[in-house]
Amino acid sequence: MRRWLTWIGVGISIVFLFLALRGIHFEEFALAVQQANPLWLLPGVGFYVLTVIVRTWRWSYLLRPLKALSVGQLFPIVVIGYMGNNIYPARIGELLRAYVLRRDTGVPIASSLATVLIERMTDGIVMIGFALVGLQSAPSVSARAGQVITFAIALFALASAVFFWMALAPARANRLAEAAINRFAPRRFQAPLLSVTHRFVQGAQSLRSPRDVLAVFLSTVVIWLLETMKYGSVAQAFDLALPFGGLMLINSLSNLFTIIPGAPAAVGTFDAGGMLGARALGVDDSLAAAYVLTLHVVLWLPVTSLGVFFMLREGLRWSDLRRAEEAAA
């Protein structure tokens, strides 16, 4: 089944890569890449490293109810997780991150995965906000795209409301989950499901007060502003004078498209989202393709290389990816 899911993801990526690259002239694309100034890629990498550091701080903040851990302790684990996402399908890096955290610190996988879900939800909410701001730089598509984004906001708002309720009323959430599991789940699955549910609710308690919610939200805004600056730095390599709002649009669309399941490293889906944003800003297709694909490489190569280094330093093997899946199951 997993092999079929992998091939389905590859097929989806091929379709989106075709949609991203259709209409470009490869001679102009190659010329744009050759004429790019590679020195501008260095600050782009620097902004990305800062982004990962802030992401690590946010995770340490979310993990406080479970265990106090420093940014230095968590940074290699976060990078290993990104490396897993970039090499393997189905965002297995999130499972790998939770597995390594349990191995090193004893934090239960279900509880740490709850904090990862909080990260993904706040990322999604901020990305939608960035898209709304960025659409002002592309008014010709704002009305149509605004309807789609409004629907997405409603879905994220509902998911966030459920999660905040779990955090603020854990006893009631546990009772409701126990009633549902005891009523509908087969008897042999009830005990493990209840155990996972209790740990998941425990992890959701990272957001126990408005102050915690504000801290996580503001750190997420900082993360994506740094990401946008990285997009701007790479744009300078191609002499693209894009407004900051336009960069926010490309950033948000390229990352929102990665929600669509595809091949590892979001090949195709990331590129289609980025191309959609660049085209909406009036960037020539061939130049936009050179920019977006270079941006993707800048995102992929440094963190993947660093993740492999940390993986070897931690004594992890590729077989630990399978163990991560089994432990999560």
Automatic annotation (TrEMBL):
The chain crosses the membrane at residues 7-26, 38-57, 69-88, 108-133, 145-168, 241-267, 287-312. Pfam families: LPG_synthase_TM. Keywords: Cell membrane, Membrane, Transmembrane, Transmembrane helix. It is a multi-pass membrane protein. One of its GO terms (cellular component) is plasma membrane. Its main location: membrane. It is found in: Cell membrane. This is TIGR00374 family protein.
